[in-house]
Amino acid sequence: MEIPERNQPCWCGSNKKYKKCHAAFDEKLKLYESKGVLIPSHQIIKNQEQIRKIKESAKINIAILDYVAEHIGPGVTTQQIDQWVARITEEAGAVPAPLHYEGYPKSVCTSVNEQVCHGVPSDDVVLKEGDIVNVDVSTILDGYFSDSSRMFCIGEVSPEKQRLVQVTKECVEKGLEKVRPWGFLGDMSQAVYDHAHANGYSVVREIGGHGVGLEFHEDPWVGYIGKAGTGMLLVPGMIFTIEPMINMGSHEIFVDDSDGWTIYTEDGLPSAQWEIMVLVTETGAEVLAW
User: Self-association or partners: how does it assemble (predicted)?
Assistant: First the structure.
């Protein structure tokens, strides 16, 4: 950590003197670090102005998913969902974060049934009765990023799929309950993992959540097989996603060679994912996007 002099402006950009802003905070971080704890860098801790602007981006993200929720159904193609997302984002004066990100060709990810994540929208994929689909939306507004996803059940789905979708949502909720300042990322991870396995499901290991706000993907990487009391220290000002991918069968996955993006379950059984974007506060956590 680069530490200013006590009477210099604080590193966080608040324009307050360091001694009246983050001096005591940094002392606490250094104490944890001396005990071997992984602490966050200053670069991923957001100040109040940054948080305000990230929340504005998140409002658009939520509105897009609300629109999808109102219009999705049997007969809708995943390409239509992409068109909805592109249009609403543009009308709000924002940019879809996935579009052209590392070569990704669309404005949203749509992952159906056994697709775990990163499904590429297509005119050829027509949602039908009994499908489950994850719609993953990410938005840039004035340079500030937001990110969340929801599961949608298309018409009447099987009890097995309905239960998978519900338990996955519960995993996110139980993980959120463990997010608190001066706790650990592993506290959240173990809560997610334990609930999934208690219900007979597996947790995808290779893909996880991430810090977000000033960039699309920031530190920390957020996995869901960690143990309580381990992982990065959670401190006020951190923003990250909780987005476990829960499989009905094995946790094994593979990438579709034909598009280089879509992730599938190895055994062909369904997968589900919900994603929320969380701010660590002085007293707990605030969900910014869902």
Answer: Monomer.
User: Would you say 22 is a known binding-site residue?
Assistant: no
147 is in an annotated binding site: yes
What pLDDT digit, counting tens, does each position of 8-44 carry?
999 999 889 999 999 999 999 999 999 999 999 999 9
* 217 labelled ligand-binding: yes
Query: Using an 8 Å Cβ cutoff, are 246 and 168 in contact?
Result: yes
> Average model confidence (pLDDT) for the chain?
97
φ and ψ of 102, to 5 deg = 50, 30
The four Cα atoms 109, 264, 194, 233 give a dihedral, to 10 degrees, of -50
What's the CA gap between 280 and 84, in Å, rounded? 31
Q: What are the b/e assignments for 95-105, b being 16+ CB within 10 Å?
A: bbbbbeeeebe
- What is the tens place of the pLDDT at every residue in 178-189? 999 999 999 999
Flag whether 118 is marked binding. yes
Angle between helix axes 48-71 and 78-91 (nearest 10 degrees) is: 140
In sequence order, what are the beta bridge partners of 247?
Answer: 202, 271
